[in-house]
From TrEMBL:
GO terms for cellular component: cytoplasm. The keyword Hydrolase applies. SUPFAM superfamilies: ThrRS/AlaRS common domain, Translation proteins. This is Alanine--tRNA ligase. GO terms for biological process: alanyl-tRNA aminoacylation. Its main location: cytoplasm. Residues 1-245 form the Alanyl-transfer RNA synthetases family profile domain.
């Protein structure tokens, strides 16, 4: 059944109460609401635990979407106990992991500002993220890092605006990605905006992000790889070159 995905409106919500609405044969658990982000758009789903009334916990290995985006399935690790339908649980997101992913995902958006080329692929990770661009130019990774850190240090606000699916369809040019479909189908689409009045950037994205750019912290471009005649892969890592965080 459709879930109330609380993370869509509050990226910093790491715990909440929920009621079990379904338990699948493979152990997947559906809840009436959740603060767990489901794998989507290159960002991994949350891990963490579901706490039962007696204090015991069900450890989760991943969170994913079901047949549609309004269904979220919480997948326990192997041999974890199964809750009962109707049981009330307290959800605990692995916040340290989620926050690193939020910082990384925001960094990817900043990179798309520095390198204003169509995006052909992306993957957000805890230690390293990658963004692929449709570009043939040679660019210096240290220069990109310097510009990224300028945007981080300027501490621009990061926030959401909502538009309808129809508004997105009428303005296709706001989509930077060439081959990743924006998160549509729920009636509304979230735009991740950076800077006052979207002065730095605005693009459709269903991922989780920090609330201001300084939270990204120290990042750098570790490598730029040539992937075909007109494709470049940028690898983003925390810390400074030679001093990974």
């Amino acid at each position: 059944m459709p879930v109330n995905a609380l993370y869509r409106d509050d990226f910093y919500l790491s715990t909440c109460e929920a009621v079990v609405t379904a338990v699948h044969e493979d152990g997947g658990i559906e809840l009436d609401q959740t603060c767990f982000y489901a794998t989507s758009g290159g960002q991994p789903g949350d891990t963490g635990a579901l706490e039962r009334a007696d204090g015991t916990k069900i450890a989760l290995g991943q969170t994913k979407h079901g047949p549609s985006k309004d269904i979220v399935i919480h997948v326990p690790l192997e041999n974890e106990p199964r809750p009962d339908v109707g049981e009330k649980l307290v959800l605990h997101v692995d916040w340290q992991r989620r926050y690193r992913l939020m910082r990384m995902h925001t960094a990817c958006h900043l990179l798309s500002v520095v390198c204003s080329y169509p995006i052909t692929g992306a993957a957000v990770g805890e230690e390293e993220s990658r963004v692929d661009f449709d570009m043939s130019e040679t660019i210096d990774k240290d220069a990109v890092t310097a510009r990224l850190m300028e945007l981080v240090a300027e501490n621009h606000p990061v926030y959401l605006q909502w538009i309808t699916d129809e508004e997105l369809a009428a303005n296709p040019d706001i989509v930077k990605s060439k081959n990743v479909r924006p998160p549509i189908g729920l009636g509304r689409v979230s735009l991740v905006c950076i800077g006052e009045n979207s002065s730095i950037d605005s693009q459709p994205c269903g991922g989780t992000h920090v609330s201001e750019t300084q939270e990204v912290g120290q990042i750098h471009i570790a490598k730029i790889e040539k992937k075909g005649k007109e494709n470049r892969r940028f690898r983003i890592r925390f810390g400074t070159p030679g001093d990974e965080a």
